[in-house]
Amino acid sequence: MATIQQVAALAGVSTGTVSRYLNGARVKDATKESIDAAVAELGYHRNLLAGSLRSRKSRSVGLLVNNMLNHFATSAIAAIEREMELGNYIILLAGFRNDPAVFEQKLGLLLDRQVDGIVLFEGDAAWSPGRLVERSGIPVISVSSPYDSPCVDSVVADSRASARRVAREMLRAGHERLGVIAGPQHEHVSSERLEGVREAVAEAGLPEGSLTVYLGDYSRESGYAGLVDLVEGHGLDTVFCCNYGMGQGALQAVAERGLVIGEDLNYASYDYFDLASLFYPRITTICPPTGAIGTYAASHLLELVEAGVPASGEVTTFPDLITWQPSFTGIDPALLGRSEEA
């Protein structure tokens, strides 16, 4: 088996230069090419275990995810994995399905494997296992939900502001009754989006009865049922859907009933752009910055890991991107076709 000393000799550089390069340090292009060629010729493989023992780093991070079917989570995880790969770290992925017992078990397994840091998706600081996070001594980043702990940094989208902005424009367009398909209110993101809509209704000076809320469970089926309930059960022609999955079901119900968005139905939704382009007229959408959030969470975590310091409780907020389209009558023409941060 080839050694790092043999690689250094063949490349014509020092052993320290080879080690720094293989651990992610920048070197001159000529040096990089020489080391890569020597590694390929000798078939060299690093002894990561030995390196971890010396540095007391496993060069791995744990990702603990509530719902792996969540479109936001999968998109953010892809960005995190890419950033970790660039830093020569691997990820260990585990899910907990909103179950505190599973959360505790999976968190314990990640800590047993000596991960250098952890990214939580929709973790809940109120759960008793959350104390394991605080006692671990490693940096922890919470994505999507602020984690109320001085030992955890959080990265979130400003869901309340974007929901308020879209609902405000729907009401300004002259629609005084608004239906909302909202997600489970025990979860931070869902409650923030609905609260933003409520704020827009209050700012418009409309009575509380102007807002009708259908609570779904993020599934396509609940979005479908919500659209039917609001339109056929309550006679509404203006609907705001607060989730991507439910939005798919709602638009299925729209299509099956032959409704034309922007004529028969005023509609806006959270989306990730792949769905909105299928409809005409185009749909006003709110797109959470999944890539930016995932990239920031990963890079920030690696900064803390490399510095050997814990998180400090800071919260970083990213604005959503709103793309305005003629999906509800009366929309300000100046908005059409524009994309803006909430």
TrEMBL record:
Residues 2-55 form the HTH lacI-type domain. CDD domains: HTH_LacI, PBP1_LacI_sugar_binding-like. This is LacI family transcriptional regulator. Keywords: DNA-binding, Repressor, Transcription, Transcription regulation. InterPro entries: HTH_LacI (IPR000843), Lambda_DNA-bd_dom_sf (IPR010982), Peripla_BP/Lac1_sug-bd_dom (IPR001761), Peripla_BP_I (IPR028082). It comes from the Bacteria. GO terms for molecular function: DNA-binding transcription factor activity; transcription cis-regulatory region binding. Signal peptide: none annotated.
